[in-house]
């Protein structure tokens, strides 16, 4: 614990920060108390007569640091002993004992902050806690589900969805000991503080070592690069507006501890604010985490098209359609797509040091330092939004190799396309498959079981199977020689339905879900002819009912021995369904997992374990989860990667 190393304020100051003090205390009093705490704990460069900087607070509540005496470039401005920082690292015994295994760093550090908030004046960091903003005006704290749904920039929307799921799952998994007994609103605030104010150092073996909330340094406002607004494009270059930097300094020969040193990168005149660059980030990152957008940010970017196929489609609509017939355009654009995908695959191979046919990597890349090459090798393709099929249906896609790698359609559970589903897609893609996740709920994600159940029962399953058909056609058109399908719960049942009704599939691996007799796809919701309502352009499903005995592709079914959903995914139901298939001569495998509950494949990631525990599914044995995933991959390798 760092507590014993922190000097508390005098008794008068201690009384001033007690929980029962008047709420109308001025900002100046809070800053004065904080300044006294800094000086008492050995901070150099502020709070003394010869100090060149001072704290300030504007009328609108903004705080920062101001220069009072001239500062030369390279001069040390102030130093903070790192024992004053609130830190998180893998060896933090307190967090390891109080929080669940696999808790993200942001959750661990937010909980540590909340424990000091709950301790009030008893916390050695009470003076620091008092100067933290009472509200972080960033979407990560202030946006609700309706606000997120209203965003018109998919990358930002996806980032906020993932953050909101993390927050909800993590709070449900954190006990009162971890959070100091504070509630979900305070937890959301602490996460926003952590995301907007944390520093980190590099670990010796690469990656991030220690995350830190550093008093005083985190009050420096942003001053990054700024483009000349009078010059359009990139020709004008960029000028830095920051004037300080931070460095970690090891103890000297005389002893002492580590310090964070803030020094000037340019001359600073009296009256100038000290500004620190928060990094070369795009505007949406500033907006999401800090609640502001820098002026004339030269590092901003935007995703114009989610993938190469969407870019080519735009080009065809804008230019090609007026000059070429469909028969002339199709082979030209298909060739352009294949060439582009091959080029992307070659770039990824070169990053991973696995260059295939073509020119060797440039000498400059070969001469890069080993650490830079190691980090380049960790760069992986990302899951991107796509619009697929004739009806431009929404989904997410990821490919890790050439266009000729096999494809897998991954179907959602009843919750929707959650961050956990996307994580599963990445894991499957890492094993050599192009993965497409159709978004059957069209962007909606259930926030609790009641809403998830409503979304599932409101789904037109007849249409959903037809949309799966368009997903398979999309993968085949992209170059996948064979396509498989998998999914869990609702996605498992739909995998059985697609295995019977969707042409072009070569294998199916459903998890804990079968097409029970009462499921709504038994009868289509459209006309008696079988057409799905509102889906005139969708291919018709050949038959409304699912008869597993008529499936003619290999199937591998998985469920847990502790799965409680009778008639849908319990072990008895699994044996009955697979028994009927075997009696009809189907090629089918059944795998039952001891001590394993429903929805167990979510436990492939730490976030999934938190999710299962929060919603009381039960946490499965890790070895059973790994075994099931490996069996699925081996099954797809056998049936999709062989001729």
Attribute tags:
alpha/beta; Rossmann fold; eight-stranded mixed β-sheet; Dienelactone_hydrolase-like; 3 domains; 20 strands; SET domain-containing protein; three-stranded antiparallel β-sheet; disordered N terminus; globular; 22 helices; SET_dom_sf; Dienelactn_hydro; 643 residues; 38% helix
Gyration radius from CA atoms, angstroms: 29 Å
- Remind me, CATH topology of the largest domain? Rossmann fold
| Name given to the CATH homologous superfamily of the largest domain | Alpha/Beta hydrolase fold, catalytic domain
Helix/sheet category? alpha/beta
Shape: globular
Strand content: 15-25%
Helical segment count: 22
What's the CATH architecture of the largest domain? Answer: 3-Layer(aba) Sandwich
**Biggest sheet descriptor:** 8 strands, mixed
Contiguous runs where pLDDT drops below 50 for at least 5 residues: 1-5, 7-25, 352-369, 371-379, 518-544
Mean pLDDT comes to 81
Helix content: 25-40%
Number of strands: 20
CATH class of the largest domain: Alpha Beta
Pfam family, one: DLH
Domain SET: 51-279
Region (Disordered): 343-366
Organism: Gonium pectorale
